[in-house]
Amino acid sequence: MREEIRKIQALMEGAHYVTDPAISTAVHLATTLQKPLLVEGHAGVGKTEIAKVLARVLGTNLIRLQCYEGLDTATALYEWNYPKQILRIRLEEREERSVAAKEADIFSEPFLLKRPLLQAITQDGQAPVLLVDEIDRADLEFESFLLEVLSDFQVTIPEIGTIAATHRPSVVLTSNRSRDLSDALRRRCLYLWIDYPSFEKEVRILRTKVPGVNERLANQIARVMQSLRRRQLLKVPGVAETLDWAAALAALHADHLDAELVRETLGCVLKEVDDVKRVEADLGAGRLSELLES
Amino acid sequence: MSTTPGADLLTRTVRFCRFLRARGLLVTAAESRDALRALEAVDLGDRAEVHLALRTVLASRPEEFPTFDAAFELFWGRPGRPGGPADGVAQEDGAPAGPLEAHFPRAKDAALDFAQWAERGDGEGEPVGLPGVSDLDALMEKDFSAFEAAELAEVERLAAQIARRLATRRSRRLRPSRRRGRVDLRRTVRLSLTRGEPVELARRERKIQKTKLVVLCDVSGSMDLYSRLLIQFLFALQNQLGRMETFVFSTRLQRITEELRGASYRSVLGRLGHVHEWSGGTKIGESLGAFALEWRHLLDRDTVVIVLSDGWDTGEPAVLSAALLAIRRRAGKVIWLNPLLGSPDYQPLTQGMVAALPHIDAFLPAHNLDSLRALVRHLKP
Predict the structure, then answer these.
(1) Within this chain, do residues A275 and A162 fall inside the same structural domain, yes or no?
(2) Which residue has the higher pLDDT, B250 or B130?
């Protein structure tokens, strides 16, 4: 293994992010090749967390752009501060300056509201990490606009001119795959798919994130989660559910699982009544051991 | 045993990229360059790391991983065999070593194809289809493309009409707006309280609702009569709508969204030739179940799911009704289009249809263009 990858792995683990070779290799390549990293995976597997940890690892700040349907450039890139402009016009009403001079004044940087994308490329000092979260929620038009910014790293504002990036931010995009992203965007990015964690990784996540859980309980929780995910559930529990459940069990001072305890705390893991009923029926029939088989 | 990234590694990497491209991955000259840069950034003696690095650069969907992994193994040799990335491909033409062919039936064809690539030079033209597949292409064209030009234009018009309807439907609900719409006095006054002057006019406008479409089309033997028309329709629709996902199924489910995207119907048909199991048996329940399990992330309240099938299911009716229930729970609406419904004396009595009916919102015919036109009215989640 390359020394740099080992180092990234250690840094990420140090920042309490349980990683695996696929993740650390992808992060290493994204920083080395200076390409955006597109992270896809099911809900709650730690996609967003990668950007946060990356910022911590690089010792820089995180700028986040949360996407949603209807997101436009005024929210993502920049907007003029209209109230401030109008107030300035009022204050200068009596001043004998030309309209052009006044106009140049109010369409200058102090009146510009920088939104996340512009912030990310014009930040002073160290390059930040730019997180474009849930890009699949934004419209197709926004996707192509983002593509433009990500390829040129410059932005043109009619009144000011072209603002070039002072440096290239590290860009992380996440997607839940609610919509298929365009091939153009995919091609621009390195790709990382985060699947549900393996048994070993889930145990490590539990041990790292929930200190109140002993090794035996962590093993049992991970086993149950693994077998639940193999069932055809309406809503498959992610890592977030694992952690909620472990925290609940820790609060109950549990040191191992039994059928009664699982039934009482099942609501932490399963969020659809049909799923709960099915698993409860299994527990009632004394089949907890099946869930605990790896 | 690791070599310095010299000319040898360079040619092999470029060849590997072409190899992937011939297998349908989206790999161009830019990706080849990135692959080389990536190899410089990893430990070439570590096979797993090389594998992960190249996959990060060259694949862009989890669905591509199996293809990539198989291609990687085929091209760079298998783990445990002497070699690894430095000299995994022994022969000059890139053909994999003999015993591997047993594990990968297409190995020979691929090598052939590969030789053609080498002659053509870098980054030029379209990827050549695998020889084994082109026969199938011809079959497909014979089957589908006998469509008359007038008919084709009609289908396209219809798709455009549906697309317009889906794109511009405004809801009655108002949402705050920055520039357009009516002035929202209440918010303007509220805003001016904090700012002293009504310097900002708050506005609101009618919210545009965007409907997403998921189509699951039955292409089993019993649907043969209609498949031609339907695929044509789906092709036209797919190229009008950014937010549409298309799947076909007979005994198993396959996503064809990417295959359907393209300028010409002919090239699309060529790509569809790679889709397995046309005109096979039918397992509607299992196919829809697979969709509900693996593609559930596509479903939400703004999504209309359309199932195109005659309902002749050879599987268990209970499986079908469970699958439809799971889909309906998440989707805005489930529409079943049945070509047989066009015939006046048809009654939905097949086991599959009986199991499905309680779980669908609309049951409509789909035997000709007129019936597809009627569909427009139902496309609201």
Answers:
(1) no
(2) B250
Task: Kindly state whether residues A129 and A265 are assigned to the same domain.
Answer: no
Are residues A156 and A65 part of one domain?
yes
Residues A161 and A44 reside in one and the same domain: yes
Are A87 and A15 in a shared domain? no
Tell me how far apart the alpha carbons of residues A53 and A205 are, in angstroms, rounded to a whole number: 15
Are A87 and A110 in contact, with CB atoms under 8 Å apart?
Answer: no
Q: Do A1 and B46 touch (CB under 8 A)?
A: yes
Residue B182 is predicted with a pLDDT of 62
Higher pLDDT: B115 or B191? It is B191
User: How would you list the strands of the sheet with B182-183, edge to edge?
Assistant: B170-177, B203-208, B182-183
**CB nearest to A193's CB, from B38, B62, B199:** B62
Q: Which of A34, A178, A189 to mutate to test the interface with B (most CBs of B within 10 A)?
A: A178
Contact present, B42 and B49 (Cβ < 8 Å)? yes
For residues A103 and A124, state if they share a domain.
no
**Cβ contacts of B48 on chain A, cutoff 8 Å:** 21
Interchain CB contact of A155 with B (< 8 Å): no
Same-domain pairing of A284 and A144 = no
Residues in chain B with CB shorter than 8 Å from the CB of A40 are: 62
Instruction: Report chain A residues whose CB lies below 8 A from the CB of B30.
Output: 187
* Closest to A173 in 3D by CA, of A128, A133, A118: A133
Q: Which residues of B touch A179 (CB under 8 A)?
A: 212, 243, 298
> How close does chain A come to B157, measured CA to CA in Å?
23
Question: Cα dihedral sign for B33, B35, B41, B43?
Answer: negative
Shortest distance, CA A18 to any CA of chain B (angstroms): 18
> Please, are residues B255 and B247 in contact by the beta-carbon 8 Å criterion?
yes
Give the pairing of strands A62-66 and A129-133.
parallel
CA–CA separation, B164 and B82 (whole Å): 59
- Which of A191, A229, A230, A278 is the best substitution to test chain B (most B C-beta atoms within 10 A)? A191
CATH topology of domain B212-378: Rossmann fold (3.40.50)
Q: Are strands B333-338 and B303-308 parallel, antiparallel or unpaired?
A: parallel
What's the predicted TM-score (pTM) here?
Answer: 0.65
Identify whether the C-beta of residue A137 lies closer than 8 Å to the C-beta of residue A68.
yes
**Which chain A residue has the Cα nearest residue B302?**
A178
* Pairing mode of beta strands B362-365, B333-338: parallel
Q: In the listed set A160, A194, A228, which residue is the last one of a domain according to the structure?
A: A194
Subunit contact A21:B49, Cβ cutoff 8 A: yes
ipTM value for the complex: 0.86
Please give the mean pLDDT across all residues of chain A: 89
The string of DSSP letters for A141-166 reads HHHHHHHHHHHH-EEEETTTEEEE-S
**Of A183, A218, A185, residue with least CA distance to A202:** A218
Of residues B56, B257, B326, nearest to A192 (C-beta):
B56
Domain-wise residue ranges, chain B:
7-128, 171-208, 212-378
CA of A43, closest CA in chain B: separation in Å?
A: 9
Judged by CB atoms closer than 8 Å, whether chains meet at B195 and A83 is answered as yes
Please tell me the total count of domains within chain A: 3
Domain of A126, in residue numbers: 3-71+115-194
Whether residue A241 has pLDDT greater than 90 = yes
